[in-house]
Amino acid sequence: MRCALSACERFILLRTNPKEMRDYNILLYHCGLYEQALKFLKLYQDMKSSSAQNPSTDPVRNPEEDAVKKLIVRLNLIAMEEGWTRPWYVRNYLGNNSEPCLGS
After folding, report:
1. What stretch of H or E contains 23?
2. Domain encompassing residue 45
3. What tens digit of pLDDT does each residue of 37-82 get?
4. Is residue 26 part of a domain?
5. Is the pLDDT of residue 104 over 50?
């Protein structure tokens, strides 16, 4: 998972496609990093809205954007229920440096 996060961070730095930021946020969510995921999802929405491309907002035609909106709602609910504390297993998993990343 650390390698996937690292790869997404590199794509984001290249600024090739705002969808890289979206994918990074989904990885953060799956890692239990809810506060960061929400922060960067909002940044992704700002980037997307300020870009020249303005994709359809119809959820039937663009299910990925509908999923982003649902994830933001879910993250807000998590924040209200649990706060932003990470579960112990997330801290241990991300802190495990035994998995080498290629190109690091």
Report:
1. helix 19-30
2. 2-95
3. 998 898 888 888 777 555 555 555 688 888 888 999 999 888 888 6
4. yes
5. no
Structure tokens at 103: 């190109």
Residue 8 lies in a domain: yes
Does the pTM surpass 0.70? The reply is no
Cα dihedral 13/4/80/50 (nearest 10): 30
> What would the two tokens of residue 69 be?
């909106």
**Overall number of domains in the chain:** 1
Q: What is the DSSP string of 53-91?
A: ------TTT-HHHHHHHHHHHHHHHHHHHHTTPPPHHHH
pLDDT at 85: 59
Rounded to an integer, what distance in angstroms lies between the CA atom of residue 68 and that of residue 75? 10
Does 101 fall in a domain?
no
